[in-house]
From TrEMBL:
<dbReference type="InterPro" id="IPR017946">
    <property type="entry name" value="PLC-like_Pdiesterase_TIM-brl"/>
</dbReference>
<protein>
    <recommendedName>
        <fullName>Phosphatidylinositol-specific phospholipase C X domain-containing protein</fullName>
    </recommendedName>
</protein>
<dbReference type="InterPro" id="IPR051057">
    <property type="entry name" value="PI-PLC_domain"/>
</dbReference>
<dbReference type="GO" id="GO:0008081">
    <property type="term" value="F:phosphoric diester hydrolase activity"/>
</dbReference>
<dbReference type="InterPro" id="IPR000909">
    <property type="entry name" value="PLipase_C_PInositol-sp_X_dom"/>
</dbReference>
<dbReference type="Pfam" id="PF00388">
    <property type="entry name" value="PI-PLC-X"/>
</dbReference>
<dbReference type="GO" id="GO:0006629">
    <property type="term" value="P:lipid metabolic process"/>
</dbReference>
<feature type="domain" description="Phosphatidylinositol-specific phospholipase C X">
    <location>
        <begin position="51"/>
        <end position="193"/>
    </location>
</feature>
Length: 315
C-alpha cells in the first residue's frame, strides 16, 4: 500500500511538471505559424473551397479523429467515459472538417474500443456515404482495423468493397503525387488492417496497413507525448519523398493504475496544444513532414489549424 501511494504521489508531481512544461513552451514560443489565422467558413467543403486542382494529396494537412466511432460506446455515465474519444457522430465529424477516420472493429463487425462495444460498422458506412452524397470534392482517408485482442470479421474486405464501391481510390502509389481533382470522382482511400487475414495487395481497391503509419506513445503525460510526437515526426522523410501517410496523434491515454481513467479529463491535458504543436514543427524545421494530425473530441478550431497550415501554400 505504501509503495503504491508513493508511486501515485510521484506521478502527480510528474504530471504537474509536464503541464507546466507545455504552458512554459506556449508562453515563450507562442503558436503562430503560416496560415494560423485561417478560419474556414464552410468546413463541410474545405477541400472544394481551396481548389481541388491545387490540392496535392501528399501535401495536404489532414485533420483526423482518434477512435472515431466511439460517440455512443458502452453504457452512458457508466462505462462510456472510459472509452469515449469523440462526442460527434461520423457524419457530424465529416461535416465539421474531419478527413481521416480511425475505426476499430471486432469479429461481428461491431465497432469497439478494447472490450467496450457500440454500433455496427454499417452505421459508419452509412454516415460516410451520406456525407459524400452531399459534397463533391472532399476526400476521406478511412482506416479500419481489427481491434487488438479481437478476430477479423469474416469476408470484411469484400464487404468494404461492396459497400463503398466506386468511391474507393484503388491502391496506387502514384496517388500521392496527384491532386484531389485528378482522383475525383473517387473519394475514399480505405486502409484495411486485419490481424490474421491477408493484407490488401498492390492494385486492390483497399490499401494495406503500411500506407498509414504512426508511432503510438502510450502515456498520460502531456509533455512526454508532445515531445515524443515531435521526435518521431523528425525521423520521417519529408512528404515530398514519402509513399505513405504518417499520422501524429495529439492525444494522451488513461493509464489503468492511475486514479483518473476517463478519457476526457486525461486527453484534456494535451487537447489545447494542437496549434502549439504545428508551430513547433515550423520552429524545429520539420513542418515538411507533417501530414495527418489527429485528436480526441475534435473541434472546428483544430480543423482550422490543420487547414490553415496548408491553405497558405495554395492561396
Amino acid at each position: 500500500m505504501g509503495s503504491q501511494l508513493s508511486k501515485q504521489i510521484e506521478r502527480r508531481r510528474a504530471l504537474k511538471m509536464e503541464k507546466r512544461a507545455l504552458l512554459d513552451l506556449l508562453e515563450t514560443s507562442g503558436c503562430n505559424f503560416p496560415g494560423c489565422e485561417y478560419q474556414t467558413y464552410d468546413p463541410k467543403n474545405w477541400m472544394g473551397n481551396l481548389d481541388p486542382a491545387k490540392l496535392i494529396i501528399k501535401q495536404i494537412i489532414w485533420p483526423g479523429t482518434h477512435d472515431s466511432a466511439t460517440n455512443r460506446i458502452g453504457i452512458p455515465l457508466i462505462s462510456r467515459p472510459f472509452a469515449q474519444c469523440q462526442s460527434m457522430s461520423i457524419y457530424e465529424q465529416l461535416v465539421n472538417g474531419t478527413r481521416v477516420l480511425d475505426i476499430r472493429v471486432q469479429q461481428d463487425r461491431r465497432v469497439c474500443h478494447g472490450i467496450l462495444l457500440t454500433y455496427s460498422v454499417d452505421v459508419v458506412i452509412r454516415d460516410i456515404r451520406r456525407f459524400l452524397s452531399e459534397t463533391k470534392s472532399e476526400i476521406i482517408i478511412l482506416e479500419i482495423r481489427t481491434e487488438y485482442g479481437h478476430k477479423d470479421p469474416p469476408g470484411f474486405d469484400e464487404y468494404l468493397v461492396e459497400e463503398l464501391g466506386d468511391y474507393l481510390i484503388p491502391h496506387d502509389e502514384a496517388v500521392f503525387n496527384k491532386t484531389v481533382a485528378e482522383v475525383l470522382p473517387r473519394r475514399i482511400t480505405c486502409v484495411w488492417k486485419p490481424r490474421e487475414s491477408e493484407d490488401p495487395r498492390p492494385g486492390d481497391p483497399l490499401w494495406s496497413g503500411g500506407y498509414l503509419r504512426d508511432n503510438w506513445i502510450n502515456t498520460d503525460l502531456p509533455s512526454t507525448k508532445f515531445e515524443s510526437n515531435l521526435k518521431y515526426l523528425d525521423e520521417q522523410p519529408p512528404v515530398s519523398s514519402r509513399k505513405y501517410f504518417y499520422r501524429v496523434e495529439n492525444t494522451v491515454t488513461p493509464i489503468p493504475d492511475n486514479p483518473v481513467v476517463c478519457v476526457w479529463p486525461v486527453t484534456g491535458r494535451i487537447h489545447a496544444y494542437a496549434r502549439l504543436f504545428i508551430a513547433q514543427c515550423f520552429y524545429r524545421g520539420i513542418a515538411d513532414r507533417l501530414q495527418i494530425l489527429s485528436t480526441d473530441f475534435i473541434e472546428v478550431d483544430f480543423v482550422d489549424a490543420c487547414v490553415g497550415n496548408f491553405s497558405h501554400q495554395v492561396s
